[in-house]
Amino acid sequence: MTATSTARTSPAWASMTLNRYVVELKEFTRNREQMIFIFMFPIMFLLLFGSVFGGQEISDDGVTFAQYFLPGMIASGIIYTGFQSLAMSIALDRDEDLLKRIHATPLPASAYFAGKILQVITVSLVQIAALILLGVAIFDTQLPTDPGKWLTFAWVFLLGTGASTTLGIATSSLLRSSRAASAILTPVVLLLQFTSGVYLVYTQIPTFLQHFAEIFPLKWLAQGLRSVFLPDNYMYAEARQSWELPMAATVLAAWLVVGLLVSMRTFRWTRPDDR
């Protein structure tokens, strides 16, 4: 490819990606189920659990349940948007032959997926901003002042979103239909939330459930975010008296690669019965 042709192709790809991103964002915001069950759920749970248990201290350092709960809800929001919502929306697009029609257009597959990923990042960032705002305004959650903690937030968010997104795309092809998506994925996400220290303090969960949760990304995503929003001393209250950030990065990166490989091998543009 010559330099001239590259120059002509890049803007076209960027323009198509931007157009696709706008379409994906409009579809998400206009979908009532997506807005309630994906975007609003973590916010509603933060308000509910924070109002009931928010003032309870869970450690000798004075960490309240609301402060512990905030990073868990942020992690859940990333999983809802990147994994559950994406898998369900792609499965629905496939059932309605939308994917087949998109595949027949000049839109590159990379632009289609880039539009999806940008939509996931946008929704996640808006949701996180809302959660932090509510946590600070209503439950007096303290935000970190150390720039290093916000750097940790950035890489945990990016790796967590990357892992969730690739797993969501991979899962969309493993579902037989969009009707089965909610029935299958909702219990899976709930199980991971209860075993990963989102709704319950992680060290109060039975040990065998802790080991089960360690296999999956949500536990490490929540723990990585706790290292940002909780005082440093709280690391000694964690299961291994450490934030284990290198392990968190390793597990999240491993799931990102697994999701990417499975997506590349299994993704299909047509319904299973079209073969």
Explain what this protein looks like in three dimensions.
- The protein has 275 residues and is mostly helical.
- Helices cover 75% and strands 0% of the residues.
- It has helices spanning 3-30, 32-53, 65-95, 98-103, 109-139, 147-174, 178-195, 207-213, 217-229, 245-266.
- One of its GO terms (molecular function) is ABC-type transporter activity.
- The chain crosses the membrane at residues 35-56, 68-92, 113-138, 150-170, 182-202, 245-267.
- Its main location: membrane.
List the helices and strands and how they pair.
Elements: H1 3-30, H2 32-53, H3 65-95, H4 98-103, H5 109-139, H6 147-174, H7 178-195, H8 207-213, H9 217-229, H10 245-266
Question: Could you write a compact summary of the structure shown?
Answer:
This protein has ten helices and no strands. The chain has helices spanning 3-30, 32-53, 65-95, 98-103, 109-139, 147-174, 178-195, 207-213, 217-229, 245-266. The mean pLDDT is 90.
